[in-house]
Amino acid sequence: MRRRRIQLTGDDQLFVLTGAGISAESGLPTFRDSDGLWKGHDVLEVASAEGLKRNPELVWDFYSMRRRDALAANPNNAHLSLARLEEALDDRFFLLTQNVDDLHERAGSRRIQHIHGNLFTSRCIACGATFSDTNSYDVTKGSPKCAKCHGAIRPDIVWFGESLENLDSIYRQLARATMFVAIGTSGSVFPAAELVYLAAKRQIPTYYVGLESPENADGFDEIRLGSATSLVPALFAHI
Ligand code: BV8
Ligand code: ZN
């Protein structure tokens, strides 16, 4: 059944939120699906500051594997169609992703913010230096150290219980939006999962696109079930 395309008018301001589901068809595992990342790993062991202190090799093994997978993956048609939409809408388009991979950027997205950090940036715990880092590390030789001060480094990713940066710029973007669309996210992590409710409070139309209904389904006006590559390219009849 072909769905009606979402009509965008000349002054619509689109806010798009994506999650791991948009990268699934590029071969990157999601978190909470049956074959997801959290199934084979204990979140607190591999994705927390305590876990890094306890066993830095295990954490760096996990993120080195994620870096290798992301480097070997390619953007899919859903990433590409969002980049094309941004080209058509220019500053009337804003993309917030919970993903730490760079597939949106490699598809051409520029008006993008990563709410949970970046897989390809590392940060020194001792001196705070952050640097782009595509390395996957052989942890049998110990965990990687900062080139500047030889302190321990970590992926520049927001773990549970850690505060997020630039939330105010995200809320500013949401305040000017006339439409909110979420794609491929289970709606289970805050504050990202709360954004649809803030959008609904502003009475702008809210759409969800993904394989299954998200945990925050009650915040959406319309839910379109299906894969990102089958639904996103034909989603908008933009101007
Ligand atoms: C914080 C890092 C302040 C690791 C991640 C209320 C307000 C504020 C905070 C909280 C709150 N309530 C609870 C909290 C604490 C916590 C939280 O949300 N806990 C949850 C579990 C209840 N939040 C925090 O700690 C945040 N920090 O708020 O700071 C603060 C400070 C101290 C104390 C309190 C507050 C930090 C959150 C960031 C955590 N980091 N990951 C890493 O990424 O390596 S979370 C992890 O989940 C990922 O980052 C991911 O981005 C995120 C969301 O997952 P999804 O992207 O949705 O992926 P998921 O697998 O869940 O779902 C995939 C979906 O895709 C599914 O729906 C599936 O159906 C669909 N799909 C699959 N295939 C396809 C598809 N769709 C379309 N096509 C397909 N082909
Ligand atoms: Zn350092």
Give a written overview of the molecule:
The structure is a single chain. By secondary structure, the protein is α/β, with parallel strands linked by helices. It folds into 2 domains: 1-28 and 75-116 and 163-239, Rossmann fold, CATH 3.40.50.1220; 29-72 and 117-157, 2-Layer Sandwich (SIR2/SIRT2 'Small Domain'), CATH 3.30.1600. The protein contains 10 helices and 11 strands. The strands form 3 sheets. Strands 4-3-2-8-9-10 form a 6-stranded parallel beta sheet, with helices on both faces. Helix 9 (195-201) links the parallel strand 8 (179-183) and strand 9 (206-210). The longest helix has 17 residues, at 56-72. It is elongated, with a radius of gyration of 18 Å. The two termini are 23 Å apart. The site of ligand BV8 has 36 residues, from helix 1.
